[in-house]
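Consider this record:
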Amino acid sequence: MADPRRTVDLLRHLIRNACVNDGTRDSGGESRSVEVLRSFLEGSGADMETYEAVPGRGNLVARIEGRHAHAPSLLLMGHTDVVPVNPDRWRRDPFGGELVDGEVWGRGAIDMLSLTASMAVAFRALAEEGFRPSGDLVYLAVADEEALGSHGAEWLLEHERDAVLTDFVVTEAGGFRMPLPSISGPKLPIEVGEKGSYWCTIRVSGTPGHASMPLRTDNALVKAAEVVRRLSDHRPETQLHEVWRAFVERSDLPEDLAAVLLDPGSVRSFFESSDDLGLARTTHALTHTTIAPTMLHGGVKTNVIPDSVDLQVDIRTLPGQSGEEVHALLREALGDLYGEVEITADSDDASTASPMDTPLWDALTRATERLAPGSTTIPLMSVGATDARFFRRAGATAYGAGLYSDRISFAEFTSMFHGDDERIDEESVRLQTDLWHVLARDLLG
């Protein structure tokens, strides 16, 4: 097996690189981490190549060539960018990469630099061991995952397809311990699909005027506040899709709980009454289209009634939902205000999923059961977007996987994605590093 201490050291270095992606073309700076990862893999015997869609935003591809040209191939893919952070809300430096009481702290520790580092360490160990896979084993450290993948996975598949496309792909995230009362031991998820993303800008217009006379003015900001309230209060209907049903049915839950989770009329009572906030939020997101107003821009001066306000909204769609259905949902939510706003789609990315009955599923299950005795795998849908969607559309089977200890609760785990005090424990780092090592030998041995 690979040495997990290497993973901890590499993870801390990646955190300190602070490859913060704020969505602009010149942010990220992922080439800093590409150089670190390339240096780490030097001398292992693997073939390596770097690609940049934009200067400073590098992608690293490393390959151990397979023995047989037509044998199934596997890609281990991790991203190197992280989302912005408010350091005033953290107990420790978000880019310090500190190791405290067996936990590595820093932005990206969970999402997803620990996985990116553990994949690199396992890949190097396999190369140093002289592992000759039946089909190609590829490691990809990709840029720009946190902002639609335009300079990372999407660009690579459009311009360097042969370098990165494989039969099977593993990326973030799975293997976390959900607090469900399974009758027959822990059930650890593999994310076989993900919700779609519909990001849009809602422009609210008004009439300018002097702010000293606000009576009966057409204030765009006041109107936008009502738009936000209506979006927040709207309750889309419950929809139980195929992956949700498979998740519940394979979780081996008590019959009464399974019945609740498989009844569209009862699911709401479960997440509204659950004491576990992480489980409640996840259950809600997996069974509903979600609408989250996230940014508001408007006004030109304190003493001017604003005539225009732009509201950014993050909408996550369920399998089969189209942009037209999203607009119907917004029309329902906004009521009489729908005709007074202008809605522009910034991103319309449909939900994707891979089949559950595949050699990759079987290999991940065997690896998980070996490393976490008494557990087994269940399918789950990711509520967020990952780069797996690009590979699914290109014909690959792509899953989100991983393996975590039970040191950090599920509620804490889910709150750290894009949240405060992000960190991961050393045992989880060890489990992840071992997972990729075992998986590659099982699937490609």
